[in-house]
Amino acid sequence: MASSVKNSEKEVVSLRAVFAGLALIAVGFGVVWTGVYYADDKRIWCKVLAETAKAVGATLVAAGAISFVWDVFVKRSFASEILHLASISRSLQNAGIETVVENYITDVDWDGVWASTSQLDIWISYGSTWRKTLAAKLSELDDTILKVRLLLPDPDHPQVIGELARRYNKDESAMKADIREAAKDFTTIFPKAFAKKRLEIYYVPRAPLYTAYLADRKGVIAMYNHRQTRGSVPIFTVAKRGSFYRFARADIEALVKEGKLVPAPRQA
After folding, report:
1. Residue 75, Cβ neighbours under 10 Å: how many?
2. How many Cβ atoms are within 10 Å of 214's Cβ, its own excluded?
3. How far is CA 56 from the centre of its chain?
4. Which is more confidently placed, 50 or 6?
5. In this structure, are strands 199-204 and 260-262 parallel, antiparallel, or unpaired?
6. 106-125 burial, b if ≥16 CB within 10 A, otherwise e?
7. How far is Cα 114 from Cα 214, in angstroms, rounded to an integer?
8. Distance CA 139, CA 134 (A)
9. What span, in angstroms and rounded, lies between the C-alpha atoms of 156 and 166?
């Protein structure tokens, strides 16, 4: 009932605005006609009146036309567009999405993601390019980080290895070697964390559907494509307050419970 009353009030206001615009146009034409009527009169005051009336009348006609066009054609579509943009903005805010890029090496602000973090959780297939390119940056965290949890697919799980081997177009023995190499590399990236048992490595009986890198306040989530060739994918930097981060956090906690904690192998 209240909604229908409000809608009726809006319609009344809109009609008033339309009639006001038409009235301005009518008055403007009347004033212009007055100017034209006195235009041929030789008296000075008539000439002044004529020029003034034509100028004022033209202004009133223009103002009325603009008001009419705005209220009838433009205002609703403009308001609809603003509401649409506001809805998109709210959706992005609720999701916590800060940036969307395609190159996870050069386009992601990793320093900003890791800033002042006490814990880092990583869920990857093996992440060869990522860890080798960013090894120096990751090593800078070794003095201050309190815990690193590395989650990898279980190299001893036949179904998982079979699925990943097909995904990456590799044989299964190479796939297992890549995963074990990733585990070993992280002991050299975080030697202090490894020595103080602050590096935890889990083998999980799952093939990743996405990769996640979660710090205390931010995270990075990257999609996988379904092609056997490498290609760009959407990479989201997300804030802790948003649904994307909460989704990945809940996933990782579940994977930790499902996975097995393995002794971190030393680099030869």
Report:
1. 13
2. 24
3. 51
4. 50
5. antiparallel
6. eebebeebbeebeebbbbbb
7. 9
8. 9
9. 16
pLDDT tens, residue by residue, 131-153: 999 999 999 999 899 999 999 99
Question: Cβ–Cβ contacts within 10 Å for residue 73, how many?
Answer: 10
Q: Tell me the pTM.
A: 0.68
DSSP secondary structure of 73-102 = IIHHHHHHHHHHHHHHHHHHHHHTEEEEES
What residue spans of 96-199 are helical by DSSP H?
Answer: 110-114, 128-133, 135-139, 158-168, 172-189, 191-195
Cβ-count burial of 126 within 10 angstroms (0-12 exposed, 13-18 middle, 19+ buried)? buried
Q: Can you give the length of the chain in residues?
A: 268
Which of 183, 185, 195, 188 has its CA nearest to residue 260? 183
d(CA 260, CA 127): 19
- Residue 145, token pair as written in the block: 């980080």
The DSSP secondary-structure symbol of 134 reads S
In angstroms, rounded to a whole number, what is the distance separating the alpha carbons of residues 79 and 122? Answer: 44
Closest CA to 122 of 233, 245, 219: 219
Structure tokens at 254: 């579940």
Q: Please list the residues that pair with 214 across neighbouring strands.
A: 121, 219
CA distance 31 to 25: 10
Cα gap 183→203, rounded to integer Å:
9
Specify the higher pLDDT residue, 69 or 93.
Answer: 93
Q: What is the pLDDT of residues 19-78, one digit of tens each?
A: 665 665 666 566 555 656 656 656 665 555 556 655 665 676 666 566 656 565 555 665
Residue indicated by tokens 């690193």: 148
CA dihedral 79, 84, 87, 88 (to 10 degrees): -140
